[in-house]
Design a protein that fits this description.
This protein has a single domain, classed as Rossmann fold (3-Layer(aba) Sandwich), CATH 3.40.50.300. Helices cover about 50% and strands about 15% of the residues. The chain is built from eight helices and five strands, in the order βαβαααβαβααβα. The longest helix has 19 residues. Bound molecules: shikimate-3-phosphate (S3P).
Length: about 170
């Protein structure tokens, strides 16, 4: 079974995903990191040298290549659910969990972690909030198609486990 964590940049998918996988003794894939390793380039360098469209194709290929019979936690990139039929692919291959966060929480988290994110790295504080508002509006219809939606601000691995498995621990 695959658990996909989805949500906006800065919503904590990677940190939570790593912890969740550890708790379940499952494999963990961070999509950005996986593509970086494969290409030998950081995400911002990929955007610069190869372009966003090319990066989206890498995300799509990775999602298509996942084997749904494996026990796997996947932290997706913030844009991944919003391109092509990626949301359908994830919903078919596993359980999708949207870590939903308030725009101000996202802004304060991204304020400190902008540099590695090509879409926001050159934005000032006010531009950042405006960008988050606009992008969230565009993206929420995709994120809202997740099987489960949980408030991301203080979510713990146990909350995800309860949400996904109820009383049927794997
Ligand atoms: C992106 C989110 C990033 C990364 C890339 C584009 C987006 O992942 O894939 O910078 O379009 O929202 P994180 O959500 O892990 O920051």
């Amino acid at each position: 079974m695959i658990i996909f964590l989805i949500g906006f940049m800065g919503s904590g998918k990677s940190t939570l995903g790593r912890r969740l996988a550890k708790k379940l003794s499952w494999e963990f894939i961070d999509m950005d990191h996986f593509i970086e390793e494969k290409e030998g380039l950081k995400v911002d360098a990929m955007f610069e040298k190869k372009g966003e469209e090319w990066f989206r194709k890498q995300e799509q290929d990775l999602l298509h290549s996942l084997d749904p019979s494996e026990n796997l936690v996947v932290a997706t990139g913030g844009g991944a659910p919003c391109f092509g039929n990626n949301m359908d692919v994830m919903n078919e291959k596993g359980v999708t969990v949207y870590l939903k966060m308030h725009e101000l929480s996202l802004a304060s988290r991204l304020e400190n972690a902008r540099v590695v994110r090509p879409l926001v790295k050159n934005l000032g504080p006010e531009e950042l909030l405006a960008f988050i508002r606009k992008k969230l509006q565009e993206r929420e219809s995709f994120y809202n198609r997740a099987h489960c939606i949980i408030k991301g601000e203080s979510v713990k691995p146990d909350h995800i486990i309860a949400l996904v498995f109820g009383n049927n621990w794997p």
